[in-house]
Design goal:
3 strands, alpha+beta, single chain, globular, 16% strand, 98 residues, three-stranded mixed beta sheet
Length: 98
């Protein structure tokens, strides 16, 4: 997650890739079909939201934020066998600190 967010913003070491100004920064994460509890049966949205909101997931939330508290990602997309889920308001729905 960190590498993708950094690359979208031109912050990944060894890469000059960056999302052009005016384009949406979309981070897509593809999961294996059976990753996590309830992922196979449509429970992906509540499971991911609970994971990212958990206090033990502070590092994961911070990976979506820049050093000055700005969002590094405009849209988070997670794809697995249960389907595709998207989040755009990461601070409100997932508890990111930016």
């Amino acid at each position: 997650m960190r590498d993708g967010a950094e690359q979208l913003n031109g912050r990944k070491n060894g890469s000059d890739e960056k999302c052009p100004p005016g384009f949406e920064r979309v981070l897509v994460i593809g999961l294996e079909p059976s990753v996590g509890p309830g992922m196979m049966y449509g429970g992906i949205r509540p499971a991911v939201e609970a994971f990212l909101k958990d206090k033990r997931s502070q590092q994961a939330r911070q990976n979506l934020c820049g050093p000055n508290g700005t969002d590094l990602v405009d849209r988070l997309v997670i794809v697995n066998a249960a389907g595709t889920r998207e989040w755009t308001d990461l601070g409100k729905t997932l508890g990111t600190p930016c």
